[in-house]
Amino acid sequence: MPGTLANDDRTRDQPVDRLPRYILVLLASLSAFSIGTYLAWSSSALSILGKIEGLTISKQEASWICASVPLGATVGSLPARIIADKIGRRKSILLSSLLLSSCWFVIGFARSKLWISLSRVAAGAACGASSILVPTYVSEIADEGIRESLWTILQLQIAFGVLFAYATGFSDSLLLMAILCAFVPGFLTIASQLIPESSVWLIAQDRRGEADAIAKRFGGRLCLNEEETWRWQTGTVSELRNHGRATIIALGLTMFQQLSGVNAVTSYARRIFEHVGFPLSSTISALILGLTYVIATLLSTTVVDRVGRKLSLFLGMSIMSVCMFVLSGYFRLQKTHEVLSFSWLPFFCLVIFIGAYSVGCGQIPWIIVDKIFPNDVRWTAITACVICYWTSATVATKCFQDMVDFMGMSSTFATYGMVSLIGISFVAILVPETEGKSVEELQIEMHETQRDYVTCI
Question: What is the value of pTM for the model shown?
Answer without folding.
Answer: 0.87
